[in-house]
């Protein structure tokens, strides 16, 4: 199963605040950051720990646990994914930040890549795609395809709201990719917006509407 669902009262409360059109851009950004911190906590639960030794307060070696795998990379999906970057980096400050930019071709409606700068050694890193709204799943699926071509084997998607249509597409095209949504909504409308949703996440985050 590629969807990692979890429920938590704080998560439910914060999503409700995001849905409220009375929530202004500043508060919206802050709440997305808080939610991303909670999603990051959940998404990294399987991080493997190894034994290590540090010098403790008595000057003697103390056995401790640390994650020793290569630092992960995040990929905030333009534009709204940028709003999730700060929350992830607060929890996991050594993560590398990769960017891949897509635009939607007006005629074919297909996502077209216009920019990519991936962290070095990306194939050895767990990659966390940040996209607040998993709607049709078209761009997220294209990002996963590009990452797999670059050799990535462990990919997770963190989103605030997922639509069943986006989940279905990801399960079909990338069944190995784990999706961690804060909530799953009812459906997409005829314009590709998630309902009940929260509107255009980019506009709400950046005050462009
Ligand atoms: N992107 C958004 O920002 N909102 C939606 O509802 C769907 C896609």
UniProtKB/TrEMBL annotation:
<dbReference type="GO" id="GO:0004845">
    <property type="term" value="F:uracil phosphoribosyltransferase activity"/>
</dbReference>
<dbReference type="GO" id="GO:0044206">
    <property type="term" value="P:UMP salvage"/>
</dbReference>
<dbReference type="GO" id="GO:0005737">
    <property type="term" value="C:cytoplasm"/>
</dbReference>
<dbReference type="GO" id="GO:0006223">
    <property type="term" value="P:uracil salvage"/>
</dbReference>
<protein>
    <recommendedName>
        <fullName>Uracil phosphoribosyltransferase</fullName>
        <ecNumber>2.4.2.9</ecNumber>
    </recommendedName>
</protein>
<dbReference type="Pfam" id="PF14681">
    <property type="entry name" value="UPRTase"/>
</dbReference>
<dbReference type="InterPro" id="IPR000836">
    <property type="entry name" value="PRTase_dom"/>
</dbReference>
<keyword id="KW-0021">Allosteric enzyme</keyword>
<dbReference type="InterPro" id="IPR050054">
    <property type="entry name" value="UPRTase/APRTase"/>
</dbReference>
<dbReference type="InterPro" id="IPR034332">
    <property type="entry name" value="Upp_B"/>
</dbReference>
<keyword id="KW-0328">Glycosyltransferase</keyword>
<comment type="similarity">
    <text>Belongs to the UPRTase family.</text>
</comment>
<feature type="domain" description="Phosphoribosyltransferase">
    <location>
        <begin position="7"/>
        <end position="208"/>
    </location>
</feature>
<dbReference type="InterPro" id="IPR005765">
    <property type="entry name" value="UPRT"/>
</dbReference>
<keyword id="KW-0460">Magnesium</keyword>
<keyword id="KW-0342">GTP-binding</keyword>
<comment type="pathway">
    <text>Pyrimidine metabolism; UMP biosynthesis via salvage pathway; UMP from uracil: step 1/1.</text>
</comment>
<keyword id="KW-0808">Transferase</keyword>
<dbReference type="InterPro" id="IPR029057">
    <property type="entry name" value="PRTase-like"/>
</dbReference>
<keyword id="KW-0547">Nucleotide-binding</keyword>
<dbReference type="GO" id="GO:0005525">
    <property type="term" value="F:GTP binding"/>
</dbReference>
């Amino acid at each position: 199963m590629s969807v990692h669902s979890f429920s938590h009262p704080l998560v439910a409360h914060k999503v409700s605040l995001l849905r409220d059109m009375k929530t202004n851009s500043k508060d919206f950004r802050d709440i997305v950051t808080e939610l991303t911190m909670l999603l990051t906590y959940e998404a990294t639960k399987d991080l493997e720990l190894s034994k290590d030794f540090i010098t403790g307060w008595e000057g003697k070696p103390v056995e401790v646990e640390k994650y020793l795998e290569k630092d992960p990379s995040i990929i905030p999906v333009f534009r709204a994914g940028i709003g999730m970057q700060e929350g992830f980096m607060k929890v996991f400050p050594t993560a590398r930040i990769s960017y891949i930019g897509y635009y939607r071709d007006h005629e074919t409606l297909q996502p077209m890549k216009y920019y990519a700068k991936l962290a070095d050694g990306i194939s050895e890193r767990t990659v966390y795609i940040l996209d607040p709204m998993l709607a049709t799943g078209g761009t997220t699926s294209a990002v996963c395809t590009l990452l797999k071509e670059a050799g990535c084997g462990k990919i997770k998607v963190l989103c605030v709201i997922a639509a069943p249509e986006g989940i279905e597409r990801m399960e079909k095209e990338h069944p190995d990719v784990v999706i961690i949504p804060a909530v799953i909504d009812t459906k997409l409308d005829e314009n590709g917006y998630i309902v009940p949703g929260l509107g255009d996440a980019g506009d709400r985050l950046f005050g462009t509407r």
